[in-house]
Amino acid sequence: MPKKQKGFDKTIYLLCLVKRPFQISFMSFPGIRLRKDMVVTMSDIIRCALISLSRKRLRTALTVGSITIGVMLVVVVTMISSAGKKAVNAELESLGLSGISISTITPINAGGETGISPESLEIIRNTKSVSTAMPLLVQYASSLLRETRNDTIICGIDAGAMQAISLTLKYGRMISRGDVGAVNHVCVVDETLAKQAYGRENITGKTIYLQIFGVEHEFEIIGVAKAGSSLLQNLDEFIPGMVYIPYSTLQSLIGRTTFDQVAVRVVSNTDVSETEIQIIRRLERATGYRDYFRADNLSLQRDRLGGLLDIVSLILTVISAISLVVSGLGIMTIMLVSVNERTREIGIKKAIGASRKRIMLEFLTEALVISLFGSITGLLIGGTISYIGIGLFGLSVPIRIYEFVLLIGFSIMIGAVFGVYPALKASRLKPVDALRME
After folding, report:
1. SS3 (DSSP) at 207
2. Distance between CA atoms of 14 and 421, rounded to whole angstroms?
């Protein structure tokens, strides 16, 4: 048997919502028998909240819309920043930004030439904790492939490029030790150059002309490499294509005997910082030059960049979340207006036995319903916009359900916080004073 509530009638309580407040009085229901054993349940309170919100459909829709916009902004910013960070990390990984980069700072000879000498390269390779060490030489040039001319970055490498700089070969073969020793005019191009000139990726056996210092040199294409992550593939019209040739060939074309830098991979489970110090000490001891060599921990720089991206993402998310707080103020304003409009209705409910707790719970439920509908709608719209927008750039969309659940919970909490004051105000109305309102 449900617990009885003296002086309370559920039927009249619910009818107070269907009829306009000024049309209701105790004489409005002469044929209704008051049943004191009826108890208003939580489902009844939710039903009451929905009926109350449906009275002012436009007002409710605008309030729900404000929550929707706030949640949508948070979802869009969060998903786009997550996808961007993932793409940047993938790009840094594809560029070989891991391990150590050894370079020089100032010229040391009369000719003003700077760089890593072949002797210094051997010292680096013979360091105990070094797994691979590949010399790098970079030169900006112009390339002519078929009838397409592009700005190009020429990178002089050796046979260890796939391990040292994470170069991924898609077709053909990589630069070999024989190519380096024989100073062959062979090259590996990235897939963007191949697509621009031939409309396909596999162009092994074709000829490309590289213009260096105004002189064109003919090279045979022996392989096609991946251009990087999808981020760069969608920006290929702004970023120069890459052409990889034997470093010995590039040295002969530009008159260099040294290298710009050496890409070093260390043995697994080895302290990278300790390896840096060890390499620099050995080079300074062998050459006699101090403060000339420089070691950069690329993995550490990548981690720092990732941390910076996290901070930027957090700032953008917080800024977008401010709109949710503003929406909460909108909920409070609308609920206060609703309390003023329904003063007589509140008085009738309290006169027939509704407690302060029940009145407060009803108005608080209305605020929560607005927040729930707004958050779900904003989540769906924001997720759809993010999915389409991120997909246009060929990036993957990271979906973390727990973040969406937390976002819905946060928006509901906003509704609860800003709905408490109007609910308290409604529950504290005195029946006698409220019934006087017309």
Report:
1. strand
2. 24
Give the tens place of pLDDT for each residue, 216-248.
Answer: 999 999 999 987 543 444 444 456 788 999 999
Q: How far is 285 from 403, CA to CA, in rounded Å?
A: 54
In 126-246, which ranges are continuous DSSP H helix? Answer: 161-164, 177-182, 191-198, 230-233
pTM of the predicted model, to two decimals?
0.60
- Phi, psi at 415, each rounded to 5°: -60, -40
The C-alpha atoms of residue 6 and residue 353 are separated, in whole angstroms, by 7
The C-alpha torsion from 218 through 220 and 221 to 222, rounded to 10°, is: -150
**C-alpha angle 333-339-345 in degrees, rounded to nearest 5:** 160
Question: Which neighbouring-strand residues pair with 189?
Answer: 224, 243
Q: What's the start-to-end Cα distance of the chain, in Å?
A: 39
Residue 295 three-state SS:
strand
Q: Which residues contact 306 (CB under 8 A, 6 or more apart)?
A: 85, 88, 89
CB atoms within 10 A of CB 246: 26
Q: What SS3 class is residue 186?
A: strand
User: pLDDT (tens digit, 9 = 90+) per residue, 336-377?
Assistant: 888 888 888 888 877 777 778 888 888 888 899 999 999 999
Strand partners, 215: 212
Distance CA 415, CA 328 (A): 6
72 vs 347: CA distance, rounded Å: 39
What angle in degrees, to the nearest 10, is found between the helix axes of 10-18 and 343-351?
170
Nearest in space to 14 (alpha carbons), one of 30, 32, 290: 32
Among 155, 153, 173, residue whose Cα is nearest residue 164: 155
